[in-house]
Specification:
- The protein has 299 residues and is an alpha/beta fold.
- The protein folds into 2 domains: 200 residues, Spore Coat Polysaccharide Biosynthesis Protein SpsA, Chain A, CATH 3.90.550; 80 residues, no CATH class.
- It contains 12 helices and 10 strands.
- Strands 3-2-1-4-8-6-9 form a 7-stranded mixed beta sheet, with helices on both faces. A 3-stranded mixed beta sheet has the order 5-10-7.
- Strand 1, helix 1 and strand 2 form a beta-alpha-beta unit.
- The protein is globular and about 60 Å long.
- The relative contact order is 0.14.
Length: 299
């Protein structure tokens, strides 16, 4: 029997590339897939296009107020019907036909406990011509997940046990849905499967909410703007994990989370975080910026 997968897509003014993405999703092999779309307040022809596909019986969609991509995707995960697996889809990429089959094959054997799959992406231009893609070699540790926001949500596939745990708590703050879900997965000790081989063309264009492959200057500038905005994403995310999932987190991870949040209290506490070998990540740039954030207490 084929595994049942629900693909969750959030749309917002996405008419330009949406048809091509939906068509690639409909070509997925060897799985029982259904597409559930939430439109996040589009004012272009996105809804008309979705309605046409719904009339053809190939997807279901509903409309909502503009929540932004993070909360729109979390809304989808909450509202979705029961299935074996759940996958996230952006509105502007292109999926290779084996994308979901590969993910589910890699997750096989972990149906009864929380598990998450994700992969690298192949960057592409607006015409889907491949671009140079940054190499991704994460450490895949819990400590790294607290400081390094690298996971591409458009490649994520999670199983039903993980979804049930995620949906037990509605956070007051999340940075992006993919960072949040990966953080939960690491915190509760879920099985993490990382595939170095990409199965998706990750389209780069001027309207990307978040993209990859930008210049080093662009990346540094973006990160400095986050510091200046005083968002303090890392400590707030850690606090949400404690409030929402303490009952699922073992004592070692919970202790690190508390230490991480309590670092806000004093410089000496933050210096201990800087020295903690568990808080190391694969990106040297991210590591340095995290230490700077610690020193100025804006992490």
């Amino acid at each position: 029997m084929k595994s049942k997968v629900i693909i969750l897509m959030s749309t917002y003014n996405g008419e330009r590339f949406l048809k091509e993405q939906i068509e690639s999703i409909l070509q997925q092999e060897d799985i029982d897939a259904s597409l559930l779309v939430r439109d996040d307040g589009s004012d272009d022809d996105t809804v008309s296009l979705l309605r046409k596909y719904q009339e053809d019986g190939v997807l279901q969609f509903y409309q909502g107020n503009n929540l932004g991509p993070a909360m729109s995707f979390m809304n989808l995960l909450m509202d979705a019907p029961e299935a074996d697996y759940y996958a996230f889809a952006d509105q502007d990429d292109y999926w290779e036909s084996d994308k979901l089959a590969v993910a589910i094959d890699r997750l096989r054997g972990h149906q009864h406990s929380p598990a998450l799959y994700f992969s690298c992406t192949q960057l592409a231009d607006e015409e889907l011509r491949p671009l140079h893609s940054p190499e991704l070699n994460p450490k895949l540790t819990f400590g790294e997940s607290l400081i390094y926001e690298f996971i591409p949500g458009c490649t994520m596939v999670l199983n039903s046990p993980l979804r049930r745990i995620i949906n037990t708590y509605k956070p007051g703050y999340i940075p992006m849905h993919d960072v949040w879900i990966y953080s939960i997965s690491q915190a509760i000790g879920a099985k993490i499967v990382f595939d170095h081989k990409p199965h998706i063309l990750y389209r780069q264009h001027s309207n990307n909410t978040i993209g990859q492959g930008y210049s080093i200057w662009h990346e540094w500038n973006r990160r400095w703007k986050r510091i200046a905005s005083n968002e303090q994403s890392r400590s707030r995310r850690a606090g949400e994990l404690i409030r929402g999932y303490s009952g699922y987190i073992d004592e070692e991870r919970l202790s690190l989370l508390r230490m991480f949040v309590n670092g806000k209290r004093s410089l000496s506490d933050r210096l201990r975080l800087m020295a903690d070998r568990r808080l190391r990540c694969a990106s040297r740039t991210t590591q340095i910026l995290f230490w700077i954030n610690l020193l100025i207490n804006k992490y």
